[in-house]
Amino acid sequence: KKKIYFVQGLRHAYYFQYFDKSSIFIIGSKEEKEFAVKNGFGFVSSLPIISSVKSYVYRDSEILINKIFSRWMSRVKNLDSAIFFIYEDTQPLGTFLNYLSKECSKNSHAICIQHAFYAKPNFPMRLEGRNTEFNFTIDRSQTKLIQPNFSKTSIIGLPFRLQAETAQPTSVILVGVGGVFYDNQVFEDSLAYFKKIHSIISNNFNLNIIYRPHPNERRFPEVMKRLTENFKVIDDLDIIDRLNSPSSIFIGVASSVLFQAEIAGHSVACFHADPRQQAVLSENAGILKLPNFENLVQWIELVQKESHIRVTETANQTDPLKIFAKAMDKFYAEIGE
Q: For the residues of 263-277, what is the DSSP string, one character each?
C-alpha cells in the first residue's frame, strides 16, 4: 500500500515537481499520455470515466458507470491514501473523481485547484470547487466566492510570475470570449461589440489593435476565418509571453486573461455581454457602457495619463512552489497525516 496522487489533466503540471514522480498518475487523454510517458509519470485514461458518466446521464444506463466506479473503489481502497487533484467538479470527469473521493473518505480526499477563470454569477449556480472538500484558490476574493469557510481553503496564487514591462500602452488586446463553444449568441454579441470597440479606438487613438482568440475559437477554422476577416491582427503569442510583454490595454468580458492581465500590471476593462456572469476585477478596472461604449474614449485617455496596476499579495508569488508546499502542509494537518 502507498500514497498516490491522481491529477486531472495538465493545467497544474508546474506543481508536479513537489511530489515524488512515482506517486503521480495523470488522468487524461492523448496529450496527457504523451506528457506522462515522456516525463516518467503514471497515466490513467479518462475515457472510461467520461463515457460511463455520459451513458448514465444521457441514456439513463447505470451498467457502465457501476462497473467503472466499482473498479476505482477497489483501486483506491488498496492504497494507504489517494489524493485527487481536480480543476472542476461540475463536468463528468471532475464530478466522478470528487464523488469517488467522498465514497472512499477513509483514505481519500479531493482538492480543487482553481484555474484563473474568474467570474461572479448573476444568478444562483454552483461554482467550480464548491462541492469539493478542499480548495486551492488564486486570491481571497475568489475564496469568498467558492468557500465562505476558509478552514479548508488555501490561497496559492498563480504557478508563474507575471510582470508587464513598464511602458506607455501602445496596444489594445481584445480578448475573445469563446462563447462559440458553449453559447453562440454570446459569441455573436461579443464579436459585434468588439467590432464597435475596434472602430472607436481606430478613430480616436494611434494604438495597435490585436484580437486574441479564445482557445475554443481556435478550434474552429470557420470561426478563425471570420475573425481574420474582421480584425487585421490576430494574437499568436503564448499567453505568458503576452502577459509579460510591454504594458497594454486588455478589453473583454469575463475571462481568465483579464484577471491575469491585471495581476501582471496591464490596464483592463470589461463589458457585460454575458448576462450570466461578470468579471471580478479591481476598482481600477474599467466597466464599459453598453451598447455604444460612450465612456471608452475617456477611459483610455485616463489610462494613458495614470498607472492602473492591481496590487495583490498572493496572486503573483515570487516562489509558487513554496506557497504550494505550505498549502499541502495545511491540507495534511487537516486530514491528520
A: HHT-EEEE----TTE
